[in-house]
Automatic annotation (TrEMBL):
<keyword id="KW-0812">Transmembrane</keyword>
<dbReference type="Pfam" id="PF15156">
    <property type="entry name" value="CLN6"/>
</dbReference>
<dbReference type="GO" id="GO:0005783">
    <property type="term" value="C:endoplasmic reticulum"/>
</dbReference>
<feature type="transmembrane region" description="Helical">
    <location>
        <begin position="106"/>
        <end position="123"/>
    </location>
</feature>
<keyword id="KW-0472">Membrane</keyword>
<feature type="transmembrane region" description="Helical">
    <location>
        <begin position="222"/>
        <end position="240"/>
    </location>
</feature>
<feature type="transmembrane region" description="Helical">
    <location>
        <begin position="77"/>
        <end position="94"/>
    </location>
</feature>
<keyword id="KW-1133">Transmembrane helix</keyword>
<dbReference type="GO" id="GO:0016020">
    <property type="term" value="C:membrane"/>
</dbReference>
<feature type="transmembrane region" description="Helical">
    <location>
        <begin position="198"/>
        <end position="216"/>
    </location>
</feature>
<feature type="transmembrane region" description="Helical">
    <location>
        <begin position="252"/>
        <end position="274"/>
    </location>
</feature>
<feature type="transmembrane region" description="Helical">
    <location>
        <begin position="168"/>
        <end position="186"/>
    </location>
</feature>
<dbReference type="InterPro" id="IPR029255">
    <property type="entry name" value="CLN6"/>
</dbReference>
<protein>
    <submittedName>
        <fullName>Putative conserved plasma membrane protein</fullName>
    </submittedName>
</protein>
<dbReference type="GO" id="GO:0007040">
    <property type="term" value="P:lysosome organization"/>
</dbReference>
Length: 304
């Protein structure tokens, strides 16, 4: 007669429990929906406005004697805080996703985001400090009065390299993983219940500041192509899921409406500045989306 292993009798109920629990998790992942993350979306919107949008403003408001030109500005400390808080909030958002997202992609995206934002911190710090020396954002690097007469001329190449790190490499490594993470999260924001496809009042109130911030992000970051690609990918996913009778939950609706408002604001911004000859010269490409800070140095700061 074969002896039964002592743990065999107790292993079967345990295995059944684990199997049932695993099946339950899979079922919840397929049909479960998350409540509106008011705390995360509020913190996310608040820190975007304070630490990102408010960064260059704080640099101009605080006395120069407190933050000398050869030291980090108050805006740089805002940027450092942003580089820590934003990845943390993104990870918390991913944790609350009803759908299990690929961890490797999330981790690589977060790492790339931090590296890109840090590259941007350095380039943007120097470029904004140049404002105190007469640098004009609405002009290209070589056309700026304080740059074009530098000797030797190779110094101009160094400033163009700095601009490249700030406006191109830094922005790409910062924003591509940022929008990728938001899209991955968005892909899990669907529910089979039509009644759950609505937003609470608090979400409606947050849509306006959220959409307005993304307008600033798209225009100042010069990432309209990345943004429009992400928005149309979201729209295509919504239409695809609708065929399966799946609808956006409150978090998905919040993201979608925020991006839709952003697109409307960008269109209005471009239409308003469509015939500006100076900005047209700086942004000569097919995609004409002027930066708010270029508009500020051209039309606002000269009158102050």
């Amino acid at each position: 007669r074969r002896r039964q292993h002592p743990g065999a009798a107790g292993a079967q109920p345990g295995a059944s429990f684990l199997q049932a629990r695993h099946s339950s998790i899979k079922a919840d992942e397929a049909t479960g929906t998350a409540p509106f993350h008011l705390d995360l979306w509020f913190y996310f919107t608040l820190q975007n406005w304070v630490l990102d949008f408010g960064r260059p403003i704080a640099m101009l408001v605080f006395p120069l004697e407190w933050f000398p030109l050869n030291k980090p500005s108050v805006g740089d400390y805002f940027h450092m805080a942003y580089n820590i808080i934003t990845p943390f909030l993104l990870l918390k958002l991913i944790e609350r996703s009803p759908r299990t997202l690929p961890r490797s992609v999330v981790y690589v995206s977060i790492i790339t985001f931090i590296m890109g934002a840090s590259i941007h911190l350095v380039g943007d710090s120097v470029n904004h400090r140049l404002l105190f020396s007469g640098y004009q954002h609405h002009l290209s690097v070589r056309e700026n009065p304080i740059i074009k007469n530098l000797k030797p001329e190779t110094l101009i190449d160094s400033f163009e390299l700095l601009y490249y790190y700030d406006e191109y490499l830094g922005h790409s490594m910062w924003y591509i993983p940022f929008f990728l993470i938001l899209f991955m999260y968005f892909s899990g924001c669907f529910t089979p219940t039509k009644a759950e496809s609505s937003m609470p009042g608090a979400a409606l109130l947050l849509v306006v500041p959220s959409g307005l911030y993304y307008w600033y992000l798209v225009t100042e970051g010069q990432i309209f192509i990345l943004f429009i690609f992400t928005f149309f990918a979201m729209l295509a996913l919504v239409l695809h899921q609708k065929r399966k009778r799946l609808f956006l939950d409150s978090n998905g609706l919040f993201l979608f409406y925020s991006f839709a408002l952003t697109l409307l604001l960008v269109a209005m911004w471009v239409a308003w500045l469509w015939n500006d000859p100076v900005l047209r010269k700086k942004y000569p490409g097919v995609i004409y989306v002027p930066e708010p800070w270029a508009f500020y140095t051209l039309h606002v700061s000269s009158r102050l």
